[in-house]
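Q: I have 176 residues here and want to know how they pack in 3D. Can you give me a structure?
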Amino acid sequence: MYGGHIALGISAKRWVPIVPLWLLVIASQLPDWVDVIVCTIRPGTARPAMLSHSIPAIALFAAVSALGGRFFFGSWYVAKVLALLALSHIVGDYVTGVKPTWPGGPVVGLRLYANPLIDFAFESAVIAWGWWMYRSTFRPVNRDTYAVRGMLLGLIALQAVADIAFMVVPRITKCG
């Protein structure tokens, strides 16, 4: 999942307006950022997903996100929302791709990436929902500005680029 993770992050602004948007997006994408770090530090890593997308890793990210929410915002409610954002990552990735469960465990997922048109439809629906939730955080007079509409179009365009990449290079990986 690519654009969908961002959409889930921005949607959370509706429930925790005190949290900066950038932090919500990072919380929703945290495992992918860990992938980038692992692949940068150790290029050619065979299975970075075990360190970033396995159930134990996601549980750790959710706990760290929750503790950060509690510490920095003084709210267990914010902590829960940040933890749920971290947990949402693996759910989306189990639908769109295949990810490890735990060391020595099975790799599971619906592999929508193998069908880029279906993946695009699914992620576009997630993006539209997330954008609609985020849009509701604006005053009514500002909800239909070019910037707000442009965000929806930009996220869908980002997803289209990702799905086109999967069609052109079906075996593309993050760690090259």
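Q: Anything worth noting?
A: Residues 3-168 form one domain. The radius of gyration is 16 Å.
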